Amino acid sequence: MIIDFIQIQKLKFDQYAQKIMAKPECFLDFGSVSDFYKSAWLNDFPMATTWSVSGLDDGAEQFYISIQYKNQYLNLDIQQTIWSLSFKNMDGEIFKQKVLRHHRPEFF
């Protein structure tokens, strides 16, 4: 029996990206761009997955995140009131969704 390790990693990426697409509020609610880079869930993606963030680290009001493995990706456009998510799976299918962003209450 031949084991295709790349196929296994592609499947792992798909499964985790689907998990984020299903409940983005559990993953994307951070206070700054630097908080994103510290997110423990990034380590759940396959090794060799790359990610990058563009935007100012000004309280995470607007920025763009790209998480990629081979030809697959999960792109996240974070705006003040809405998250736009785009996911390309290992079969080349693209799924898109928009989610209203819930702000954490601020306490003074």
Keywords for this entry:
about 30% strand, about 110 residues, globular, alpha+beta, 5-stranded antiparallel beta sheet, 2 helices
| Average predicted confidence as pLDDT | 86
Order of helices and strands: HHEEEEE
Q: How many alpha or pi helices?
A: 2
Q: In angstroms, what separates the terminal alpha carbons? A: 62 Å
Looking at the structure, what is the overall shape?
globular
Strand count: 5
Biggest beta sheet summary: 5 strands, antiparallel
Helix/sheet category = alpha+beta
Poorly predicted segments? 104-108
Helix content range: 10-25%
Q: Which strand order does the major sheet show?
A: 1-2-3-4-5
Strand percentage lies at 25-35%
* Rg, Cα atoms, Å: 15 Å
Query: How many separate structural domains?
Result: 1
